[in-house]
Amino acid sequence: MHAITNSGWIEVITGSMFSGKTEELLRRLRRAEIAGQEVAVFTPAVDDRYGEATIGSHDGRSWDATPIDPETGLEAVFSACNGEKVIAFDEANFFSHSLVDVCERLAADGRRVIVSGTDQTFRGEPFEPLPQLIAVAEYVEKFRAICAVCGEPATRNQRLVDGEPAHVDDPTILVGAAESYEARCRHCHTFRDD
Ligand SMILES: [Zn+2]
User: Fold this and answer.
1) Active site annotated at which positions (predicted)?
2) Beta strand pairing status for 179-184 and 156-161?
């Protein structure tokens, strides 16, 4: 692809679960739509909580999105995009590391790229590719939720299995399993390591 202008850039919206990332993404997409800008939204095909072809926040608003395979489907973004100036990726923590290169190429091509996803695993470790995207982005916004235990600002994803903290050796990505999540602060966040 050839750059059509130098005005492309990358925006990252990150933070823990329940911090309002997708609400913020939807807000930005609406602003672009009101300005008459064409928007393309991609979501990892693993996440069908809100139906295959939409992104949604917990408050029920949604936006049409194109589901793509998070490991092998990213090249399809280039054929799926037409003239859109605004390209968004939701749940970006489910995508492979190739997302970094794809976002860089889209920005170099003059697009505004908006990426939303959590930056920490349930263990509280950096959750690629978000940390890499944060490093190369022009704009980064990190949101906090409210700790479900103590009410202080929360940056961490507490994974629970049958109401108990998950084990540290559990896989990082679990989709459709019986686990649940809470937002918690550093102090209240925990996992089993026995
Ligand atoms: Zn707390």
Assistant:
1) 91
2) antiparallel
